[in-house]
Amino acid sequence: MQNAYHPFVNEQTLTPKTQRITLYGDAAYELTDDVELFAEFLGNRRKTYQNSWRQFWTFGYTGDNYGEGGGGPGTFWADGWTGYNWLSPTGITNQADSSQKVDYLRGVGGFRGDFDLGFMKGWAFDTYVQYSRSKGVYRDQQILQDVYDISYFQSASCVGTVTPVSGKDCIDLPWLDPNFLAGQMTQEQTDFLFSWEKGRTKYNQLSFEGSVTGNLFELPAGPIGAAFGVTARRDKIHDRPGEITLAGNAWGATASGITAGHTNTMEAFGEVHVPIFKDTGLFQDLSLSGAARITNVKAKQAETGITDKNNGNWTYKVGANWTVSPWLRLRGSYGTSFRAPALFEQFKANETSFVNSRRIDPCVQTALNLERGNINQQIFDNCRAEGIPTNYAGASITATVFSQGGIGVLDPETSRAKTASIILTPNLRDIFPDTKLSLAVDYFDINVKGEISQLGASAIIRGCYSSEFFPDEPLCNLFGRGLAVDPFAIDNIQDKYVNIAQQQNRGVDLTGLVQQNIGRFGSINFLSQVTWQLKDTFALFAGTETDNNGEIGDPRWVGDFNLTWRAPGGWNLFWGMDVIGKSSNRRDFARANRDDTPGRTCISSEIRGEYCVDVSTPMTAYHSVSVTKELPVLKLEATLGIANLFDTTPPRTSTIGGTGIPALIGPVVGTSQYDFLGRRAFLNLSKTF
Questions:
Q1: pLDDT the model gives residue 69
Q2: Residue 125 maps to a domain
Q3: Mind listing the pLDDT tens digit for each residue in 89-136?
Q4: Measuring CA to CA, which residue among 584, 602, 592 is closest to residue 662?
Q5: How far apart are CA 547 and CA 78, in angstroms?
Q6: pLDDT recorded at residue 66
Q7: With left for phi above 0 and alpha for psi between -120 and 50, is residue 331 left, alpha or beta?
Q8: Residue 232 lies in a domain
Q9: Total number of domains in the chain
Q10: 3-state DSSP call for residue 675?
Q11: What is the pLDDT of residues 651-671, one digit of tens each?
Q12: Which residue has the higher pLDDT, 548 or 51?
């Protein structure tokens, strides 16, 4: 069991210690009246450190077990025990820290200007070359697998030998010493069991883009504007894990190889803006726009030499903008997009991780779970057809999950997006002479197909046993069962990157702006942006659509409300409120625990009896205030403020109850929308040169 009250737990980092250094500069020089040379540079270093803790364990037998009860000595570190027992001492340690250092550099250089000759007169051009590099160095503390292997059913002292992978002089670890298990180790024991490793990840990108913009010819409503361009880009990745990981010598952690490869991308694009009507009846202004892009991508994996091509992928967008009157404007668009697999999704080397077998296995306690409605008859029948007992309690071990990139298999992601908007800018001069009001309502509908992702161990196994084609379902070939200690235990799962079915998001954005002039006291601006989510569905396979809208981490609405007073003398006062709407996992909880009583989230347990849980969060608001002073003579701006003014904490939910309980950090909801830093003051200085 995890000990939530051990001092090591209180040492764990919630928000990592972070240091950032950023340097930015840009320059421009006019070569002629029509041509400008420009350059940009950005350099950034980020260093972070995390304190952590973990549990570790081994296995052994007591006294008379060796020799099938023949009076053997038992496991070496269990000397003195008698009887027939199986031991699994579990310790805790704070030797599980990690750190990262990331250096990022970006340089841009190019030319921009206007054409002044021939048929291109009046057109503008922009061409540049960009190079960027990111180098990350990450360090982790690992438990050494070869040290662990020595203690596993250890039959004799290891003193005088050397560990086969790490090359350490062996010492015997006191696995039944309470101090050792509580993390109170000697320096010699710590140095033997744990070790730091260092890995590196490098990303490089070299790109070129050139474009021209101008007017093609005149129409009665105005000129047809156009833009054309080309892009060439080379992206490269090289990720080398630490030596411990490369050697597969990290106990209870991932093992992976070197991820390396590059992609070459060539694109051509064009855009056009066509004015249709101007100052004609209901058409104060009506214009259409269109854009198209063709993309060719070639990928090559460094280690294997495997190549893949995604050629002739073209996307487009069409739109309309209709100004009905000075206070009413309508707009809409329809577009498609294309995303080739990312570097890591294609080239990721084979990586291993571990997952609790019992938690992902639908064949555990099938008789009981069928009765409770946690599984259907199809799963029950397929598990029984494989010979798994209906009262099988599940394996108490971890299964190994293998994941890797999908070069040669992955297709690009595609999507389509529809939008429709109403923009209102009423004239209030007759009623409120010094007030301006604008309101925009935007409807959006985005559908992504062939999204690149990993299925996940649980989805693979459940998809196998819920299939009517079992055992010929292809998912059933992605995992295996059978260990010496448990012939029904899930042993390994193959979980590489694949294209899944689709994801859809639909909603409404509302933006409102009020500007009020208050004479010699300055002006007040109020800006509000709210998003109502109408649909958020995800389908891992065709026919498996789930709607996450309104669940914890995916609320139906969020919004921010900002009030700014621009006072005389260069003073600005700001108040802001970020709001996260209420949410609930009631639907998932009811489905998992077969409780359809409205408003009720309770479980009947043989151990606890009936108990109820809270799987909902209330509306949460975070307030911030600041004051800004502008100093034009010094070209300086200073801002002093307080974020999370009322020290609002993330909402809490129940921590027990099984499926349907949200992800937690301690007792609070672990989603990124909420503030984990608490009340804090900040000072920002900005100077213009």
A1: 47
A2: yes
A3: 999 999 999 999 999 999 999 999 999 877 788 899 999 999 999 999
A4: 584
A5: 52
A6: 46
A7: beta
A8: yes
A9: 1
A10: coil
A11: 887 765 555 566 666 667 777
A12: 51
Q: Is pLDDT of 59 > 80?
A: yes
Contacts of residue 500, Cβ cutoff 8 Å, sequence gap at least 6: 450, 451, 452, 453, 455, 539, 540, 541
C-alpha to C-alpha distance for 377 and 383, rounded to whole angstroms: 10
Burial class (CB in 10 A: 0-12, 13-18, 19+), 585: buried
d(CA 372, CA 142): 41
Q: DSSP letter for 375, please.
A: S
Tell whether 97 is covered by a domain. yes
Compute, in degrees rounded to 10, the torsion defined by CA atoms 276, 277, 282, 287.
40
Instruction: Give the position of tokens 């903008």.
Output: 321
Residue appearing with tokens 């500007």: 515
Q: How many residues does the chain have?
A: 689
Q: What is the pLDDT of residues 333-342, one digit of tens each?
A: 999 998 989 8
Phi-psi region of 420 (alpha: psi -120 to 50; beta: other; left: phi over 0): beta
β-pair partners for 28? 38
| Total Cβ atoms within 10 A of residue 360 | 21
Which residue did the predictor score with more confidence, 583 or 131? Answer: 131
What would you measure as the largest C-alpha separation in the chain, in angstroms?
Answer: 104
Coil, strand or helix at 479: strand
Residues 6+ apart with CB under 8 A from 190: 95
684 against 1, higher pLDDT: 684
Cα angle 435, 438, 440; round to 5? 165
Of 645, 619, 647, the residue nearest 558 (C-alpha): 619
Please report which residue ranges of 315-451 form alpha helices under DSSP H.
343-347, 357-360, 366-372, 377-385
Strands 398-403 and 490-494: parallel
Cα separation, 196 vs 140, in Å, equals 6
Contact 11, 53 (CB under 8 A): yes
Residue that wins the pLDDT comparison between 313 and 150: 150
Chain centroid to CA 676: 17
Mean pLDDT computed over 49-61: 91
Global pTM value: 0.80
**Structural domain that includes position 31:** 7-349
User: Is-contact 32 4, C-beta < 8 A?
Assistant: no
The answer as to whether 152 is a domain residue is: yes
Distance CA 472, CA 510 (A): 50
Token pair 């309980």: residue: 661
- Residue 470 CB: number of other CB atoms within 10 A? 19
pLDDT tier for residue 493 given thresholds of 50, 70 and 90: very high
Closest CA to 491 of 660, 361, 646: 361
Instruction: Quickly list H helices, 23-106.
Output: 66-69
| Average pLDDT rounded to a whole number, residues 503-521 | 92
Structure tokens, 322: 């209709």
Which band of pLDDT confidence, cut at 50, 70 and 90, is reported for residue 3?
low
Q: What is the pLDDT, as a whole number, of residue 70?
A: 45
Beta strands in 615-674 (DSSP E): 616-617, 620-631, 636-643, 664-665, 668-669
Which residue, among 434, 427, 431, 366, has the nearest Cα to 394 in the 3D structure?
366
